[in-house]
Amino acid sequence: MTTTNSLLHHRYSLLKRLSTSESHLPPPPSSLFLHPTTTTTTTSSTTASTTATFSLSPPTSTATTSQQQPISFDTLQHHLSTQNFLQADEETRSLLIVLAGEAAQKRGYVFFSEVQFVAEADLRAIDELWRQYSDGRFGYSVQKRLWQKANKDFTKFFIKVGWMKKLDTEIEQYNYRAFPNEFTWELSDETPEGHLPLTNALRGTQLLNSILSHPAFAGEEDEKAAENEVQGSLRENISGPKPLGSLFPKPDYSF
After folding, report:
1. With 0-12 CB in 10 A as exposed, 13-18 as middle and 19+ as buried, what is 197?
2. pLDDT of residue 46
3. Percentage of residues in the chain with pLDDT exceeding 70?
4. DSSP labels for 128-154?
């Protein structure tokens, strides 16, 4: 009986020493556990919402948002300088998507209402590169001049720049060319002026209308048209009323 009590007392003493030594052990490294970090978002109405997230390491310093990188036109310039007009046309479309904003980038194409968000300097830079490497035959400003010359009639404009082809029918009819094989991707005397860059008009002309009407191209052509209109009004006031027949000009079918 004495031996049993001695063994029980010895075991109790050993467990007590182990318990005392464990209480002095250092805590485990904090990086081994998930630590909640609190992020506070304040809205314009001064209401705050708090959300808790978890990370495998202690919170680090807040990352700064990188500023948006400027748009580069080097790729477009390279394709144009090497007369690779097909790739230049594709690059132009890609640039317009980027310049139109985040929604256009996610969608993959540009709405006509988004053209207004494209900076004048950027759209003008694209146009200048096209004119520079085509001897002034390609570019949006060239297309705008031809569009205005056609009294902003898109059917006449499409025929003029070669985007529509004449059908082999008894009645004079035209149809859109098939992309890309039926378009001209080289610069020659036979290439229609204003043929490039292309703008898809199969779903309507609003996008092209927005591009050609962009303030980036509200330059000399508009000023000259306004000036000619003023001069015409002055000549009419000086010379007096015109004969009745002159008020109805003869139709021009030469286009």
Report:
1. buried
2. 39
3. 59
4. HHHHHTTTTSSSHHHHHHHHHHTTT-H
Tokens of 112: 């006509």
Burial 67-96 (b: 16+ CB within 10 A, else e): eeeeeebeebbebbeeeebeebbbbbeebb
Strands of the chain (E only): list them: 35-42, 48-55, 164-166, 174-176
- Residues 7, 13, 16, 21: is their CA dihedral positive or negative? negative
The structure tokens listed for 123 are: 């759209």
- DSSP assignment, residue 192? P
User: Can you read off the two tokens belonging to residue 54?
Assistant: 């978890």
User: What's the predicted TM-score (pTM) here?
Assistant: 0.63
> With helix as H, strand as E and coil as C, how does 30-51 read?
HHHCCEEEEEEEECCCCCEEEE
Note the pLDDT tens digit of each residue in 169-209: 999 999 999 999 999 999 999 999 999 999 998 889 999 99
The residue type at 198: L
How many helices (DSSP H) and strands (DSSP E) are in the chain?
A: 9, 4
Beta bridge partners, 41, equal 49
* Residues with pLDDT less than 70, the chain: 1-69, 220-255
